Amino acid sequence: MKKYVQQTMNAVQQYMDGEMKNAPEEKTREVLSEFETKIAYFQHERLIHLMVTLAFASWLLFEIFCLFVLPPEFLIAGIFLVLIFFGLSVGYVMHYYFLENSVQKMYHMRDEIRAHLNKSKVI
Questions:
Q1: What's residue 12's pLDDT?
Q2: Each residue's pLDDT tens digit, 58-110
Q3: 52 lies in which domain range?
Q4: What are the two backbone dihedrals, phi and then psi, of residue 82, each rounded to the nearest 5 degrees?
Q5: Is 23 inside any structural domain?
Q6: Does 7 fall in a domain?
Q7: CA dihedral 33, 28, 99, 43 (to 10 degrees)
Q8: Across 44-60, average pLDDT
Q9: How far apart are CA 80 and CA 95, in angstroms?
Q10: How many domains, the chain?
């Protein structure tokens, strides 16, 4: 997913830096439409990853709680589960952080394209 998000952002940024200044308005509107569709997909992906992140964080907290109430013979298994859920939670938080920041950057890129289209209409 990271590679796809970065490729999308790079492709749109290259268009904005190069072609957009001299491209016909219709071409820019096509690029904007496709970009907005991809932003919607990434927003959905971000929402799903938020829910998964919260689920793993909740399971982690539950397992930590269980360490205090379980009998001592289950302590090793409980610690093992805490470590697993901690690792998964950290990984999901990092991925969610990437998605959140990328979508925010895409909003700014979309706004720049729209500003360019509005400026070209005035002239």
A1: 87
A2: 999 999 998 888 888 888 888 999 999 999 999 999 999 999 999 999 999 99
A3: 37-122
A4: -60, -45
A5: no
A6: no
A7: -20
A8: 92
A9: 23
A10: 1
CB environment 49-81: b (16+ within 10 A), e (fewer): beeebeebbebbeebeeeeeeeeeeeeeebeeb
Q: Has this prediction a pTM greater than 0.70?
A: yes
Of the candidates 80, 87, 88, which has an alpha carbon nearest to the alpha carbon of residue 49?
88
Task: Please tell me the distance from the alpha carbon of residue 81 to that of residue 85, in angstroms, as a whole number.
Answer: 6
In a domain, 74, yes or no: yes
Helix pair 25-69, 75-122: axis angle to 10 deg: 160
pLDDT band at 118 (very low <50, low <70, confident <90, very high): confident
> Do the domain assignments include residue 9?
no
